[in-house]
Amino acid sequence: MDRRGRPPWLSHATAADLAVAASAAVVDVFLFSAVSSRKPEGAGMWLFVALAVIGFAALLVRRRHPVLVFCVVWVWAVLVTPTSELEFQPTAIPCVALFTVALRAQARVSAGALLACAVLAVLAGLREAASRPPEARLVATYATLVFYLLVHGCVWAGGRWARLSRQHADDLEFRRRVEAHEAVVAERTRIARELHDIVAHSVTVMVLQAAGARRVLDTDPVRVGHALGHIEEAGEQAMGELRRMLTALRLSDEDESGDGVTGRPQPGLADVEHLVGTVVAAGVRVHTRVEGEPRRLAASVDLAAYRVVQEALTNVTKHVGPGACVEVRLRWEPDELTVEVIDDGRGRRPELALSTNHGLAGLRERLAIVGGRLAAEEVSSGGFRVTAVLPVAGPVASDPVREHR
């Protein structure tokens, strides 16, 4: 008994297996035998019941042992067909076994099963000829043979088609996972390079402040104190960014080939207005709204917030097209910044949208590294909403983006 108290032979049979086996047995009993018209009695009836139960029971384990079940069913059908008392010609049960072999076995094995079914077709033709008058035997033999060959061929082809469809679906799923993983790895490398620029800038500021403090060490102690304060602040920021950079590289030991450090300043929320302008020029209406008091963001978080807006607006231009209306909301709270981009989905959709559909996967990885989170979902109006929540570093106010209409 298994954990549910069922016998072992039934523990592997699902409700679908039971339904298929029972349906096949009923079809064979009432359509491919004379039991409904002759109603045998005594030993003949018990023999017929035993034959039907054997075919039914064999199909219950067809998923686990498809080839073995087909062999058992084939031998069973070969032995049953010559019996003339009940005129029992098993058809549905062998077809179910053949379909399972075509679905689960290799091509050579399934082709052998199809050829074996030709024997059943020949036996059925010979049996049909024996029951007809001499002048009609030839026609009855060929008609019966063609019927069973067509039935077995269609069943086998359906099983092979289902197998190829499953393999294709599995290949697509595997390819999707590989592409998503590659997108995440590429995003990690890109983030590491950007954080390298940020850390390098902080270290440069520290060096310059230290050099200036050393020159006025004896003449201007107040200025030296200010310089040391700037050095401390820049050092804390550099250490935080360095930790994020190491996190970004924790799963990537090999750096991908590229241009390396570009030396260009990294964009942030202060550049959102310029980004919105380029999208508006493409025919998309964009409204920006700022709620709350802007606060300080670490450089990597500022860059991540910009990337959220950039990716969301890029997706709108790619998939919705000109004429769409987008709202960009920045909601500042004491400890968090919420970036929300919502479109109405009512643009002139482009005929061909060139996209790998993995931008959000890389963006989600970027936000996780800086301590944020990302959510993307469809809205009732038919558009799309992208929401990102990012940590706020400190209380210093800034004005990174103005409301834009």
UniProtKB/TrEMBL annotation:
Protein EC: 2.7.13.3
Domain DUF7134: residue ranges: 11-164
GO molecular function annotation: ATP binding; phosphorelay sensor kinase activity; protein dimerization activity
Pfam families, A to Z: DUF7134, HATPase_c, HisKA_3
Enzyme class at the top of the EC tree: transferase
Protein name: histidine kinase
Transmembrane domains' residue ranges: 12-31, 43-60, 67-85, 105-126, 138-158
Gene source species: Saccharothrix carnea
Superkingdom of the source species: Bacteria
CDD domains associated with the record: HATPase_UhpB-NarQ-NarX-like
Catalysed reaction equations from the record: ATP + protein L-histidine = ADP + protein N-phospho-L-histidine
Entry keyword ATP-binding: yes
Residues in Histidine kinase/HSP90-like ATPase domain copies: 304-392
Gene3D superfamilies: 1.20.5.1930, Histidine kinase-like ATPase, C-terminal domain
Keywords (A to Z) from UniProt: ATP-binding, Kinase, Membrane, Nucleotide-binding, Phosphoprotein, Transferase, Transmembrane, Transmembrane helix, Two-component regulatory system
Cellular component aspect of the GO annotation: membrane
Annotated ranges, domain Signal transduction histidine kinase subgroup 3 dimerisation and phosphoacceptor: 187-251
